[in-house]
Amino acid sequence: MTTKSKAISAVKDGKTAKLATAKTADTPASRPMNDAKRLSFFQKLSEHIKEPVTELNYSSDFELLIAVMLSAQATDKSVNIATDKLFKVANTPQAILDLGLDGLKSYINSIGLYNSKAANVMKTCQDLLDKHGGQVPRTRAELEALAGVGRKTANVVLNTAFGEPVMAVDTHIFRVGNRTGLATGKTVLAVEKALMKRIPREFLVDAHHYLILHGRYTCMARSPKCGACVVFDECMFKDKEKWAEQGS
Predict the structure, then answer these.
(1) What angle do CA 85, 89, 90 make, to 5 degrees?
(2) Which of the following is catalytic: 4, 37, 152, 240?
(3) Does the annotation count 152 as an active-site position?
(4) Rounded to whole angstroms, how far apart are CA atoms 173 and 211?
């Protein structure tokens, strides 16, 4: 019987105490996962997640860049609702500039921080035309020089649009890295660097999407679904048996 099976089938006296998890930013680091477990971790995720792709809707590198810029502190679902309407009328740098700032805002005002995001999108569109021939640049330095584009956004574009083996760490991946022991660190950059060192090379290109989808639907912040987790045996989370029992 696997550790997971034992945990789920364990006899419990009385009611299981309600468990609590830390805020993502305060996720305590678990003991490090060893090389064999890391390999098995990604082998299982790759078997379970058949399509490791972004859940943002886009049909060009430019649309991806804009969608990722809009997704900061917003859900992919809310971004998709806005861009579904926006991209039908403006899906190039010039077309968005032609909308004007107020016109752009009218399409994205359902998204948090839309005022500042709209201003950054307008500046980025102008820079793409002035400095890059209207094309999305393929280097981190050039991407990060665009208004509203930080390291995470640049990494998402480099990985998703251009297939670069880089790691964009968001709240989901930060939590998964620390909770599972896959790659621990107190900052996003520390976790990113640890992941780049520890992810088996053959899984590096798709690792961002494996981890973000795992964090979004299984290794969730408040109620991790440890009892249904395909990498339960590899995970180093000290409370995984308790969460598996509570969910059984």
Answers:
(1) 105
(2) 152
(3) yes
(4) 6
Catalytic residue selected from 4, 37, 117, 170: 170
Sequence-distant (6+) residues with CB within 8 A of 202 are none
pLDDT digits (tens, 9 = 90+) for 38-91: 999 999 999 999 999 999 999 999 999 999 999 999 999 999 999 999 999 999
pLDDT at 20: 61
In 10 A of CB 27, how many CB atoms? 21
Q: Residue 109: how many CA atoms within 13 Å on its side-chain side?
A: 7
Helices 204-217, 188-198: inter-axial angle, 10-degree rounding: 130
Q: Is 77 a catalytic residue?
A: no
Global pTM exceeds 0.85: yes
Tell me the C-alpha distance between 183 and 199, whole Å.
Answer: 9
Low-confidence ranges of the chain (pLDDT < 50): 5-17
